[in-house]
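look at this one:
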Amino acid sequence: MQSKLITGLPESLEVLHWHEEMFDIPKEADVLFSNANLQNQGFVLGKQAVGLQFHLEPEKDNIKEIVVNDSQYLSGSMFKQTAKQIIEHPVPKENKRAMFRILDYLTE
């Protein structure tokens, strides 16, 4: 995932993608994030709104709760990960910094 619209974001992010519903980017918005699997991963609408198709906010315990309570998602996921792989994967520290940078962008 990559963004050039908001300065100070990492070159790429490793995020939790937990659903495969998709959205269309509003005509007035700019694509914020995309990747090889999913083009519309995020958008920014001026300084008014940001839409994301993934999660930056979960901590380790939150991820375990999501996996345990919504495990049926894994059976059809395009990412082909097991519950164990997801739960044991470390949460990247840059995700929290990226989330705060995006929120700062909206208030600058």
In short: The longest strand covers residues 30-33.
